[in-house]
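name: query_chain
kind: protein
chains: 1
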Amino acid sequence: MDFAEQGLDATALAAGLVQGAYSCTALMQDVLARIAARNPDINAVCLVDADHAAEQAEGNDRLLAGLDTAARAALLQARPFFGVPSLLKDLGTADPRLPSTMGSAYFGQVRFPQEGDLTARYRQAGFSLIGRSTSSELGLSPTSEGPSYGGPTRNPWNRAHSAGGSSGGAAAAVAAGMVPIAHGGDGGGSIRIPAACCGLVGLKTSRGMTPFGPARGESWGGMVSEHMLTVSVRDCARALDVAAGASPGAPYVAPHFARRFAEVVEQVQAAGTVTPLRIGIVVQDSPALDDAVREAYAQFGRRLAQLGHVCVEVPMPVSPREVMQHVVPVIAQNAWAAIEAHGRACGNTALDGLQKTVQSLVRYAQRMSASDYVRHINGLHALGRRFADYLAATGIDLLALPVLAREPAPIGRFGLDWDDYEDYRFGDDSLLQYSPFCPLANATGCPALALPAGLSPRRLPLGMQLVAPLGHDDRLIAVGAQYEAAFPWQRYAPAA
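structure:
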């Protein structure tokens, strides 16, 4: 059954499986067939364990065959994504069955000795994890064009353009209808950017909301959050319900919510409204927005006002350049630490297996001292306090921003083939001008939700985001559900 053609999200798909509308085996066969047919054109899926996928589906069908109606309902309540095929991003999320290249020829095949807490929670929720989706090398680019995959990951809406990054494969696989939901990670926009590029929902959660254990406590100085890219806000909420909660001993712990995030969506759907919020709309145009993005941003504000929210003009809380002055060194140091550790472990200290920009990143990171790193970590913490003070001073509940300042980039525009890492990040017409707004949420630990908000003249999706105070992921989900109900979007890209 073609869930994409029917516009089904993962929640509806799981309900249909458990209720017997279609079998897990038939769905899995269709998913594997769609990946085989569509992936050569899109290049979003880099690993498929077809044998294990079939085993999971057959086992699920055997389980369902022995259950009556009441037992099936209880199963769906306990495992809300029962039988739903999904993918893990090709980075460090640990699964012993699914090795990772880390998006890099240098790393080869990284095999994991134990299952990560997040992976275990996804399986407990019923997901059938069948493979991995493409990324940029070490997650360092807002596009996914690593040569280790044999070519770029393309946008299902327009093959000449990027699907975003670094979770570009996840977004492209979902938008192209290969799977209905897929895992990603966001350390500087890497969930929200591909969501925006591919017309999906992408939530960067509050710091500490989802687990990194047992092998790690955090990633990139606490800037990375892991979650799913989805076609609906309710899928986003349900996936957060099954994943939320820190690992034992985690260095950051997000607030505990007394009710499920899915209940927030259900309440909005039942009431048809949300308590009005004050939402900040940034008035200055710096960095400059493309005309299409500027128009979509203005429309986003008008739509939020139509929904009853009070939209007020506010200044940027902090300049994108100042945010990036702390974000970029922390990313570089963490990437270099991973490269150095791998080189020591495998006895290969030559860097020629890395892409050109990543080699430059290593040289950049090597020039920094330990005290430099501590200074930048403290800088991130100071930004978090400044943003909290800004929210209090302006009296706003949410800040609305574009995800990108431009439409999705053409393939090759921001590949990791630049000679100079600092120029790639800070130079004229660099990433600072393309993606100036996303890193704010990573630097401060705050949650941010990307929503589809229209199409460019080239029929490419444009995304807008809402940023909430730390720990208020439920506020984003409520407004997202309200927005989706009032202004629905096409859930999957048009067929090629």
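note: The radius of gyration is 21 Å.
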